[in-house]
Every structure is written in structure tokens, then in C-alpha cells.
């Protein structure tokens, strides 16, 4: 399965006492794992990937401290749901 989705996340400045809400658009891919193969051999785990395609600050101006790297770090900490 694969799809695209979006979600709002909060990104915090590493040096300032500031936080901003960002809408992140991303593509995802999910392949369910299997406990065992049909021949009884051990299976394999779920495979999941999510990649940011675009992001924008929600309802305010983009602060100067906000970078792609900070958005990616905040996104990586999120629990991503698989939705279409």
C-alpha cells in the first residue's frame, strides 16, 4: 500500500523559547510483514516509510530559525498513521 497524507506538527526552536505549527505533506509506503511463511520458515517485519514532500507554516509567518532539518526531526518523532 502507498499513499499521500498531511498532518500538523509542532516544531520547537533549539535555541529560542519559541514553537511553531507546521503542516507537513508526505508520501508513505507500507508493506505488512508476516509471522511465518507458508513453508513454516520465520517471516519478516512490517516495512514502513514516510517522506516529506512539502511543508508550510500554519497561520503565521515563517520564523527565521525554522529549517528543513528541524521540520524533519520533529516529523521523525511523530507516530505516523497510515491513511489514504
List keywords for this structure.
mainly beta, 84 residues, 5 strands, single chain, three-stranded antiparallel beta sheet, elongated, 1 helix, two-stranded antiparallel sheet
Structural class estimated from helices and strands: mainly beta
Low-confidence stretches: none
- How many helices? The count is 1
- By DSSP, the count of extended strands is 5
Structure characterization notes:
The protein is mainly beta and 84 residues long. It has one domain (2-77). It has one helix and five strands. A three-stranded antiparallel beta sheet has the order 1-2-5. Strands 3-4 form a two-stranded antiparallel sheet. Strand 1 and strand 2 (19-31) form a beta hairpin. The longest helix has 10 residues, at 68-77. The protein is elongated, with a radius of gyration of 17 Å. The mean pLDDT is 91.
Amino acid at each position: 500500500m502507498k499513499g499521500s497524507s498531511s498532518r500538523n506538527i509542532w516544531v520547537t526552536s533549539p535555541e529560542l523559547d519559541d514553537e511553531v505549527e507546521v503542516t507537513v505533506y508526505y508520501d508513505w509506503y507500507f508493506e505488512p510483514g508476516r509471522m511465518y511463511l507458508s513453508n513454516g520458515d520465520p517471516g519478516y517485519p512490517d516495512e514502513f516509510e514516510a517522506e516529506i514532500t512539502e511543508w508550510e507554516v500554519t497561520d503565521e509567518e515563517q520564523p527565521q530559525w525554522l529549517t528543513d532539518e528541524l521540520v524533519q526531526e520533529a516529523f521523525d518523532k511523530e507516530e505516523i498513521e497510515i491513511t489514504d
